[in-house]
């Protein structure tokens, strides 16, 4: 992967995340931040995959980063967290694998389709579990933060 | 002087309307419960009992009026309204607005929908499709045709969901249109790879809100609403998948 390709990917992720936010009618002042969080999550995913970490771990950690960053943004901008993490999730969606699954099922190549189905299930599971983990991190942080404030 | 019964009625009305607007527009259940409880508390109700589900809300406060039900009949994705309710609730908590003003704002918010203009949404659909096609498949020459096909598919989805009001059907029809246009485009020589074009073009239809909310609801312990949203996301995904599969089958 060349540098130019990489830059195009990052710009594409940013633009697509913001555009998806527009389709969901996210308030204007939250759009840019959502785009940045989307890029951040995608970069984590991309680098883990590039360094041989595998798709599942990549999606998992990408989702964790998105969740934690979204809560931070929500605190900072005093807006609901879902304004940031829903669009940011979009670049992680396993669109390619889901499509290959549908295509192979439609063409009657069930064995190949099942391989892709497994990939889709694992990746979606990883993203869901990543959100779960980020929630855990967020709650731990809140707890620690509150105790700090008390003393 | 307002009687306490009227006051209780207004509290219930405000909290229930706020909750309904939030669920209708795609909020997670925990946030709704939290907001409604805060409204009741800030309005001076001693205690409040809440039962929030994805299809309806039940709320009671200690006072002269009984518990009231608010059904949730339609569900769309308009995250701006959630944000506005959130802001109003914050303002009410800091006594910037009164309960009556809060209720009026909510009724006004409920009646109006302030979406981005149609042409902005069309451009947004194009900008979801094209860039994601490049990000996922690294197929730069097909960028333009993907933008066009994604836009047309999204317009079909938008118009159908406006007039038919069954989201799954609109998604299915949009997927069929996307599949047909992608295959047609490659056969006319406008694109190189129909697979890549389809993958990019269906991205604006991805049910991002139900997926995210489903996970958050299940995690928060809402074991009825969370899986319900999961089913919603699954049916949407299946509708899109069947649409594409149908086109591929016939080609």
TrEMBL record, chain A:
Xref: InterPro entries: ThrE_2, ThrE_Dicarb/AminoAcid_Exp
Report the domain of life of the source organism.
Answer: Bacteria
Q: Give TM regions.
A: 6-24, 54-74, 81-102, 114-133
- Tell me where it resides: Cell membrane
Per the record, membrane topology reads:
Multi-pass membrane protein
Q: Its GO CC terms?
A: plasma membrane
Q: Which UniProt keywords apply?
A: Cell inner membrane, Cell membrane, Membrane, Transmembrane, Transmembrane helix
Instruction: Extract the Pfam families matched here.
Output: ThrE_2
What's the chief localization of this chain?
A: membrane
- GO biological process annotation, one example: succinate transport
Q: Which residues form the Threonine/Serine exporter ThrE domain?
A: 10-137
Family recorded in the similarity comment: Belongs to the ThrE exporter (TC 2.A.79) family.
Q: What is this protein called?
A: Threonine/Serine exporter ThrE domain-containing protein
Protein source organism: Levilactobacillus namurensis DSM 19117
From TrEMBL, chain B:
Membrane topology label: Multi-pass membrane protein
Q: Provide the protein's localization.
A: Cell membrane
- What InterPro entries does this protein's entry cite? ThrE-like_N, ThrE_Dicarb/AminoAcid_Exp
Entry GO MF terms: transmembrane transporter activity
Residue ranges constituting the Threonine/serine exporter-like N-terminal domain according to the UniProt record: 14-251
Membrane-spanning intervals of the chain: 118-137, 143-160, 172-191, 231-250
GO terms for CC? plasma membrane
Keyword list (alphabetical) reads: Cell membrane, Membrane, Transmembrane, Transmembrane helix
Q: Which GO terms describe its biological process?
A: succinate transport
Family the UniProt entry places it in: Belongs to the ThrE exporter (TC 2.A.79) family.
The protein in question is named Threonine/serine exporter-like N-terminal domain-containing protein
> Which species is this UniProt entry from?
Levilactobacillus namurensis DSM 19117
């Amino acid at each position: 992967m060349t540098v130019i390709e990489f830059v195009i990917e990052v710009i594409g992720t940013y633009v697509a995340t913001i555009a998806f936010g527009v389709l969901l009618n996210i308030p204007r002042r939250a759009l840019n931040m959502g785009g940045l969080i989307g890029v951040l999550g995608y970069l984590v995913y991309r680098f883990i995959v590039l360094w041989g970490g595998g798709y599942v771990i990549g999606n998992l950690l990408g989702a964790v980063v998105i969740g934690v960053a979204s809560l931070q943004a929500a605190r900072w901008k005093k807006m609901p967290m879902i304004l940031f993490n829903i669009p940011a999730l979009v670049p992680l969606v396993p669109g390619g694998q889901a499509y290959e699954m549908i295509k192979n099922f439609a063409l009657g190549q069930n064995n190949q389709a099942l391989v892709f189905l497994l990939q889709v299930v694992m990746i979606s599971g990883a993203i869901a579990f990543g959100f779960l983990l980020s929630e855990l991190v967020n709650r731990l942080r809140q707890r620690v933060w509150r105790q700090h404030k008390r003393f | 002087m307002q009687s306490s019964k009227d006051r209780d009625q207004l509290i219930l009305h405000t909290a229930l309307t706020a909750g309904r607007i939030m669920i209708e527009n795609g909020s997670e259940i925990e946030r709704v419960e939290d907001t409604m409880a805060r409204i009741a508390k800030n309005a001076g109700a001693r205690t409040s009992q809440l039962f929030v589900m994805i299809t309806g809300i039940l709320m009671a406060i200690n006072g002269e009026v009984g518990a009231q039900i608010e059904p949730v009949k339609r569900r769309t994705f308009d995250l701006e309204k959630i944000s506005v309710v959130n802001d109003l609730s914050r303002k009410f908590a800091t006594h910037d607005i009164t309960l009556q003003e809060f209720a009026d704002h909510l009724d006004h918010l409920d009646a109006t929908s302030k979406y981005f203009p149609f042409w902005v949404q069309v451009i947004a659909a194009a900008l979801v499709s094209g860039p994601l096609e490049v990000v996922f498949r690294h197929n730069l020459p097909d960028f333009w045709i993907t933008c066009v096909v994604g836009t047309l598919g999204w317009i079909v989805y938008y118009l159908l969901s406006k007039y038919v009001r069954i989201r799954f059907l609109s998604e299915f029809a949009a997927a069929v249109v996307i599949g047909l246009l992608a295959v047609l485009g490659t056969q006319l020589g406008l694109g190189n790879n129909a697979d890549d074009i389809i993958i990019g073009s269906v991205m604006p239809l991805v049910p991002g809100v139900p997926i995210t909310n489903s996970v958050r609801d299940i995690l928060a312990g809402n074991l009825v609403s969370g899986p319900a949203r999961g089913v919603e996301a699954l049916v949407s995904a299946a509708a899109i998948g069947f649409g594409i599969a149908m086109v591929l089958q016939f080609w």
